[in-house]
């Protein structure tokens, strides 16, 4: 079953400027798809369109269908906000680049994780407290992290909290939009490994958005390459890395290899 089917997606500004044109892809249950492209290529807007969260004034055309167990198959484009609220968190949830955008600076971490659990799963009292503890444990944070405010924990820990919140309603699809770009390199690797194991354990579908080919290649098995709002190439990670067809993809691969080569020379 496809959890997400995007077909002929177009996104325009209110003055008619096309930002994304005719983008199509799908992600099956347990599948992992990467959206890659340089800054401004339309990756984030595509991810936001999937959630029905485009900025005001922008319009989407084409089709974005979400289908998750226990929920009605829904065409997101043109859906009423009421319908989308029911889907967000459960059919699909997002982890953004900057965890602070997802977190309330004035609320303790535990309460923030409790909120979706209370609202969507109807948990209260001791059951809610237990579920918060479990959610923290799943993202490898100690139970005492529940009492911290976001500014009292590190960037990597904050991203773990954002992941715990995204997973609280057991979404069928997790969208990770540059989830490690704001983190130190060593912390990046830990958060990527955590995402990898959580997605596998829950057989979730993953849509992973990044400008970093090496990161996308490690996190996904299929890739769509975006350039100026258009999909210029798509295929398995293996094909994209070893036999890129489009000159833009070849450039991405060459730059990633140069960087890798430079790093190896530095380490030696
Ligand atoms: N709110 C907005 N109003 C007008 N144009 C926008 C808005 N948000 C994004 N854009 C434009 O849409 C295009 C695609 O943006 P998008 O954020 O999807 O790119 P991206 O590939 O995710 O890049 P980045 O990695 O830098 O976020 C860019 O040209 C951007 O300037």
From TrEMBL:
Residues 1-253 form the ABC transporter domain. Its main location: membrane. It is a peripheral membrane protein. It is found in: Cell membrane. It comes from Streptomyces polygonati. The keyword Flavoprotein does not apply. GO terms for molecular function: ATP binding. This is ATP-binding cassette domain-containing protein. Belongs to the ABC transporter superfamily. InterPro entries: AAA+_ATPase (IPR003593), ABC_Ni/Peptide_Import (IPR050388), ABC_transporter-like_ATP-bd (IPR003439), ABC_transporter-like_CS (IPR017871), P-loop_NTPase (IPR027417). Keywords: ATP-binding, Cell membrane, Membrane, Nucleotide-binding, Transport.
């Amino acid at each position: 079953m496809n959890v997400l089917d995007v077909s002929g997606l177009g996104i325009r500004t209110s003055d008619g400027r096309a930002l994304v044109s005719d983008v199509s892809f799908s992600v099956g249950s347990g599948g992992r798809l990467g959206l890659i492209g340089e800054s401004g290529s339309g990756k984030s807007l595509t991810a936001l369109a999937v959630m029905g969260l485009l900025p005001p004034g922008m319009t989407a055309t084409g089709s974005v269908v979400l289908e998750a167990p226990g929920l009605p198959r829904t065409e997101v484009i043109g859906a009423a906000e009421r319908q989308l609220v029911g889907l967000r968190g459960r059919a699909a949830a997002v982890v953004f680049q900057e965890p602070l955008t997802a977190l309330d600076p004035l609320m303790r971490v535990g309460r923030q994780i409790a909120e979706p659990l209370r609202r969507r799963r109807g948990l209260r009292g001791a059951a809610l407290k237990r579920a918060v503890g479990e959610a923290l444990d799943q993202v490898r944070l100690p139970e005492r992290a529940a009492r911290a405010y976001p500014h009292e924990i590190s960037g990597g820990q904050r991203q773990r909290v954002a992941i715990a919140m995204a997973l609280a309603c057991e979404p069928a699809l997790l969208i990770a939009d540059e989830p490690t770009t704001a983190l130190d390199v060593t912390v990046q690797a830990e958060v990527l490994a955590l995402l990898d194991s959580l997605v596998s354990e829950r057989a979730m579908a993953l849509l992973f958005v990044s400008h970093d080919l090496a990161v996308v290649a490690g996190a996904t098995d299929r890739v769509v390459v975006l350039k100026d709002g258009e999909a210029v190439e798509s295929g398995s990670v293996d094909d994209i890395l070893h036999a890129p067809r489009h000159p833009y993809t070849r450039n991405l691969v060459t730059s990633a290899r140069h960087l890798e080569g430079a790093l190896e020379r530095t380490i030696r």
